[in-house]
From TrEMBL:
The lineage of its organism: Bacteria, Pseudomonadati, Bacteroidota, Cytophagia, Cytophagales. It comes from the Bacteria. It holds the Pfam family Beta-Casp. SUPFAM superfamilies: Metallo-hydrolase/oxidoreductase. Signal peptide: none annotated. SMART domains: Beta-Casp (SM01027), Lactamase_B (SM00849). Residues 13-227 form the Metallo-beta-lactamase domain. Keywords: Hydrolase. It comes from Spirosoma utsteinense. The keyword Chloroplast does not apply. The keyword Hydrolase applies. Residues 253-378 form the Beta-Casp domain. CDD domains: TTHA0252-CPSF-like_MBL-fold. This is Metallo-beta-lactamase family protein.
Length: 464
């Protein structure tokens, strides 16, 4: 059996890991889009033949794990895609949105390439390709083994990173040997405000493990709501400004809404408009409502008392472009929550462009942002940013609340791995992380008893 890493290798995007068994069965784990600057060509080629892949298993719905599935299908992949029912519903929302973004951005990208004397790129995929990909998805429940061909059994366990997210366990039978391979997917946090805690998973021989926050401990946040309320009051009441929150459309947005809902129920939230400015966020919130089976007991108890954790007075879900433009042109103090979480695309980017030079504005970062993204520049404290080709001074106040992060820190990831006997794990492969952070995470794992930790490079192939 071999593993080859075609994405998320010494980087955090483009997750793709190809397993080839001794009998030639090819199983792809995730098929994500590379995100950030200068990734257009990376997304055009897979590094392998899509038509030669037999099966796919998907960990969760984030675009850096799913965003090239429609292209995989368009280029010849015809096999089943095993994942959870929640993930399928989220993929319908997120991949259709991604297809529209691909089509909208292609003209701009090709104009830029033409000016540089570079050949034009083809569209990655369209909505028809997305629908075909959705048709190939097969819903699998947590902790229910399923067969992948004749020689592999799969198992999905709750990773608590996103609605429907899963760690993937593969039991591979080859001649007289059985090998247990686990892909962590993205590891969630045990105290997520909406989702259940991560599940344990079977003892592994090999682990492919994420590394996003392998170098850090999240700052303790004794009272998330109080911190959020303080930012709202300082920005919208004292400064009469706008609070802009770039947030992933799924889970982070709903977690923010839930916190604001609680503050409104408690009579603490100032009377001001709260705009969820994104058609995708509107749809994703409904998907969340439809899958309460993935919720933790605390929010279920709140819903029983309150009726709806994602709706309160002065909360406005904005789908139409005209509504978004009206928010942008208004000087009224308000809260605006919109994707993308890295501020790289979508309506939030327009809101930031129009308000980043205003000192009464606050931009609140609530999740991971790659260093090459606009969100990364803001979190880093850059004094200037370039948005839509225009260089702008960052006069807005930048706030960071890592308590809303969906990725576990190294202590939480070690807890996630605590169901394993490190002495029985032959190799841990680190993916989905920046190389410098992976080096630190590698040391943490070795100190915890995992003797052989490897950081593969792009397209590196390993024999197991």
């Amino acid at each position: 059996m071999t593993i080859q890493f075609f994405g998320a290798a010494r980087t955090v995007t483009g997750s793709k890991h190809l397993i080839t068994t001794a009998d030639g069965t090819r199983i792809l784990l995730d098929c994500g889009l590379f995100q950030g600057i200068n990734t257009d060509e990376l997304n055009q080629q897979f590094g392998f033949d899509p038509a030669a892949v037999d099966y796919m298993v998907l960990s969760h719905a984030h675009i850096d794990h799913t965003g090239l599935i429609p292209r995989l299908v368009a280029k010849g992949f015809e096999g089943p895609i095993y994942t959870t029912a929640s993930t399928i519903d989220l993929c319908e929302v997120m991949l259709m949105d991604s297809a529209r973004i691909q089509e909208r951005d292609l003209e701009r990208v090709n104009n830029r390439r033409s000016r540089r004397g570079q050949p034009e790129l083809e569209a990655l995929y369209n909505e028809k390709d997305v629908q075909q990909a959705l048709d190939q998805m097969v819903a699998v429940g947590y902790n229910k083994p399923f067969e992948i061909g004749k020689s592999v059994t799969g198992l999905l366990t709750d990773a608590a990173h996103l609605l429907g997210s899963a760690a993937i366990s593969l039991t591979v039978r080859e001649q007289d040997k059985t090998t247990q391979l686990v892909f962590s997917g993205d590891i969630g946090r045990p105290d997520d405000k909406i989702l259940r805690k991560p599940d344990s998973f079977p003892q592994a021989d090999y682990i492919i493990c994420e590394s996003t926050y392998g170098d850090r401990i999240h700052e303790p946040e004794p009272d998330v709501k109080a911190h959020l309320l303080r930012i709202v009051h300082q920005t919208c009441v004292e400064k009469r400004g706008k609070l802009l929150i770039p947030a992933f459309a799924v889970d982070r947005t709903q977690e923010l809404i839930y916190a604001l809902d609680q503050l409104e129920t408690e009579g603490k939230l100032p009377r001001l408009p709260v705009h969820i400015d994104s058609p995708m966020s509107v749809k994703a919130t409904q998907v969340m409502r439809d899958h309460e089976e993935d919720f933790n007991p605390e929010i279920l108890a709140y819903i029983k008392r309150d009726g709806d954790a994602f709706d309160f007075k002065n909360l406005h879900y904005v789908s139409e472009v005209e509504g978004s433009k009206a928010i942008n042109s208004s000087d009224e103090p308000c809260i605006i929550i919109a994707p993308s979480g890295m501020a790289e695309a979508g309506r939030i980017k327009h809101h930031i462009k129009n308000n980043v030079e205003d000192p009464s504005t606050t931009i609140l970062m609530v999740g991971y942002a790659s260093p090459s993204s606009l969100g990364g520049a803001l979190k880093r404290g850059d004094k200037e940013v370039v948005i839509f080709g225009e260089r702008l001074a960052v006069n807005a106040r930048i706030e960071i609340m890592d308590s809303f992060s969906a990725h576990g820190d190294y202590r939480e990831m070690l807890h996630f791995l605590s169901c394993q006997d490190p002495a029985q794990v032959k190799t841990v492969f680190l993916v989905h992380g920046e190389y410098e952070k992976q080096l630190i995470w590698k040391e943490k794992l070795e100190a915890a008893g995992f003797a052989h930790v490897v950081i593969p490079d792009m397209e590196e192939k390993v024999d197991l």
